[in-house]
Amino acid sequence: MNRFFNTQHAPVGAHASLTLGFPGARGGMDLELCGAPGQSVLVALESAQQPGVFETLPFCEPPDDAERQRFVSDQGDSHLGASGLGARLFALDEVQREFSLGTDRWQAGDLRFTLYTPVRDLPDPDACAPLDAMRAFVPAVRAEIEVDNRAGTRARRVAVGLSGIDPLRGLRHLVLGDRADGIGIGDGLEQGFATDAPGAWSGIGFDPLAVLGDRHQSNRGSMLGGWGLVCAEVPAGERRTLRFAFCFHRAGVITGGIATRQLYNRWFDSVESVARFALSDFDEAVQASRAADARLAASALSAAQRFTVAHATRSYLYSTQLLERDGRALWVVNEGEYNMLNTLDLVADHSLYEGLHHPWTVRNVLDQYAAGYSYEDEDGVSFTHDMGVDGIFAPPGRSAYERAGLTGCFSQMTTEELLNWTLCAGLYAHQGRDLAWARRHAALLERCLQSLERRDNPEPAQRNGVPRADSSRCEGGREITTYDCLDPSLGQAAGNTYIAGKAWAAYVILQQLFVQLDRPALAERAHQQARRAAATVVAATRADGLIPALLEAPDDDAVILPVIEALAYPWFAGCRDALAPDGEYAPYLAALKRHMSEHVLREDTCLFADGGWRITSRSDNTFPAKAYVCQFVAREILQMPLGTVGTRADEAHAAWQLHPDLSVHCWSEQVKNGLVFAAKYYPRGVSSQIWLTEG
């Protein structure tokens, strides 16, 4: 397995990451950049055998002398930057890595470098104790450097540093109150790192070796140059652990359209204040990170599955952003490199994880859509694709993405998003144990039912349970699905059996909600629509067991995987009776299972040569996060023993993310013939977390 892949060490809710793992200056501190920042990160230990030679982890590149030359005339100090010291990058085969959900550890020689990323249930910041919220949402990544100098005969220096990338502000020295509280380096005003190691000092210069080798301590206050570092010592005969915090802080109003600030400003007013808290509360974060590791290790998942869960969850954490509007929390998950706000077709995938661990975030987003991003077309209520892009909220009832007059990418997703909001509402009401919320939204839930019915057919006698209308917002175009870049077998919404599956799931969930709300007439309407949707799919199933992708094209041989995807929603919304293999919908479930076993899981349709899963037989472009959900559905709900087919798929899906060149992009969602090509830095793969509930 390739050990040198980028992953995101991300404080939840900050839309920030210390991205690290790919060789060279291909990672660094990322604050809302949505891509690897290209920053050198120095983690170095002075050699035991060669004093003055620093051995470094392979995450940096030599400094560019061009910056120094801007300051040096022909008569200038040509020795500025010379040090007499040396550096050696550890060879890649000298470096070992232990990667898990909460920790990422690098070992080379006598140096051990560990990054901690707590993955835990998140408290509602508007309802919990301040300390609990501060611990959950402090915008910092903790790191430890352990040095074994017990066999040494002299002190050895440790250096941690980075090249500056802030385009407006230079590097600066950080002092955390009293110097005993800690010192560090800031890259501009919004990010930096600090340590509380005894005797540590900071330096800025054109070359890290020049800073380390300068005999004049008074020069340590210099501020010119593109490199900043912190140096500490480990005495001879000792083994020490030095603690660092990589910190982020963005002040003031940071979004447009709707004015918000980062919620962590409730407690922290600067990078320095973040660092003080992160270092003082270091042990709790370490314990939380190790607990996350332990939960993953105790699961029955294979090594490939554990990697996928750990890697994908980190990219989700990076995309999260906890904002504050009018004194209340506002939860956003940004869409990876595309950076759209709370994209609703991703909210549906994230809710499978969030509902289990912090359902208040699902409620928060549902309420945002209900209040500002719902709209009416000729058939009734629906919801926008997203809430905006790049930190700019869209006008009410509009998205950044959707346009009229199209039949492919960027067209309207009216039906898909109506279904997604409805599915998430049922999932939240169950997982959050919050029927009171459903009662407050009872009128909107009824409007959702009416809208779904009309998108099937305005005339009740003509309904078959499957939405077939294109929204009037299309203005002559056609609605699309979340699979917007694929051919009509999955890209077209109207009459698609993938959409039919989501409609069935939505009706099942609405039936349960209306029963709980004591609205029997509405419950019966939802029940009838669920029965119709299931019967329509069963009736459309061909004699050979293939479920056509489009009801309007029964003879088309396209094979789609996500026809089973939506079964996950009633499962996690507490509607498991509807999923019983001998229950009311037994024929529907049997048809789905046969479609999977006889048509999807074949190398001439939806299996790549390496065993990975295609979303549709018509495209070499696949969406791994959606495959993760379908793997869960096949194993846990349809009770299909996948055996070698499942093992090969897990190994292939992991290998796609570990490509020796393309793994610079962290977890990515669009893969073509095994190669990542789009949707990088993407959050959707957190759907793999539901594997931990199996069995």
What does this structure look like?
The protein is built from 18 helices and 27 strands. It is of the alpha+beta class. The chain has two domains: 273 residues, Beta-galactosidase, Chain A, domain 5, CATH 2.70.98; 360 residues, Glycosyltransferase (Alpha/alpha barrel). Strands 7-8-9-10-17-14-13-12 form an eight-stranded antiparallel beta sheet, with helices on one face. It has a six-stranded mixed beta sheet with strand order 6-5-4-11-16-15. It is elongated, with a radius of gyration of 27 Å.
Condensed summary:
This protein has 695 residues and is an alpha+beta fold. The longest helix is centred in the last third of the chain and has 21 residues, at 520-540.
Topology overview:
Layout: E1 7-9, E2 16-20, E3 28-31, E4 41-46, E5 53-56, H1 66-69, E6 86-89, E7 96-99, E8 103-108, E9 111-116, H2 130-137, E10 140-149, E11 156-163, E12 171-175, E13 183-187, E14 191-195, E15 201-205, H3 208-213, E16 227-234, E17 238-248, E18 261-262, H4 271-280, H5 282-297, H6 303-319, E19 320-325, E20 328-333, H7 344-357, H8 359-372, E21 374-377, E22 380-383, E23 388-389, E24 392-393, H9 414-431, H10 435-440, H11 442-456, H12 488-491, H13 497-516, H14 520-540, H15 568-572, H16 586-600, E25 621-622, H17 624-637, H18 643-657, E26 670-672, E27 675-678
Parallel strand pairs: 5-6
Antiparallel strand pairs: 1-2, 2-3, 4-5, 4-11, 7-8, 8-9, 9-10, 10-17, 11-16, 12-13, 13-14, 14-17, 15-16, 18-19, 19-20, 21-22, 23-24, 25-26, 26-27
Helix pairs in contact: 6-18, 7-8, 7-9, 8-9, 9-11, 9-13, 11-13, 13-14
